[in-house]
Write a structure and sequence with these properties.
Helix content is 73%, strand content 0%. It is an all-alpha fold. It has one domain. α4 packs antiparallel against α6. The longest helix has 58 residues. The N and C termini lie far apart (95 Å). 15% of the residues are buried.
């Protein structure tokens, strides 16, 4: 993740921190890869790997037409994708946190720079002036766009995770229903076989 590709060298220093200061801010808040490396080294938690199998689509035909082994394969595929998306959601949330923190810190520096410049000129910027200057700062706008992209990704992933969870529950209930029906059928057949020899002989007058 490289955030230092936008918003640099586009405005005079009077409206915000220098390019060097912006780079320093980015390095300060850019902890995502450090955390991923720490998780891998300290606890062996590796980044999620995309499952090799496609996400199964649960249909009526699928629920009715699979054997036991196929049911397990479908369920395992759903679980694999659910786990992958869950891990990926946590990664996107970490990136969003990082972007929000850098934006907040950048806003502080822009405000400080604006007030310092205005003080030299014996002026006092209004709250609206400060807010507007922050919003139009190229680096701030770049980070805001990156934040939007990651929030949109997060929304889609969360929706797909809910869909996978519903599919897992549906498939699990169907498996339990088949199991119960099979056990009931086998049980009834066993009872008939055991009961037949014990039937009393037919009475013949």
């Amino acid at each position: 993740m490289n955030q230092m590709t936008g918003g640099l060298g586009e405005l005079p220093l009077a409206v915000g921190p220098s390019d060097q200061q912006q780079e320093a801010l980015n390095q300060q808040w850019n902890t995502y890869h450090l955390i991923e490396a720490h998780l891998a080294q300290a606890w062996g938690i590796q980044p999620p790997v995309t499952p090799v199998i496609a996400i199964p689509t649960i249909t009526v035909e699928l629920l009715r037409g699979q054997n036991d082994e196929q049911y397990m394969e479908t369920f395992n595929a759903l679980a694999a994708w659910d786990n992958f998306i869950s891990e990926t959601i946590s990664q996107v949330q970490n990136i969003i946190t990082q972007l929000e923190n850098e934006m907040a810190d950048l806003a502080v520096h822009v405000e400080e720079n604006l007030k310092a410049t205005a003080k030299i000129e014996n002026k006092k910027p209004s709250a609206d002036d400060i807010k507007f200057t922050i919003k139009v700062h190229p680096r701030y706008r770049y980070l805001k766009l990156e934040l939007q992209k990651n929030q949109q990704i997060l929304t889609r992933l969360e929706a797909r995770q809910k869909s996978l969870s519903r599919s897992e529950r549906l498939l699990s209930r169907n498996i339990e229903l088949i199991k119960s029906t099979r056990e009931a059928t086998l049980g009834a057949g066993g009872m008939q076989k055991r009961a037949s020899p014990d039937l009393p002989p037919r009475f013949t007058p």
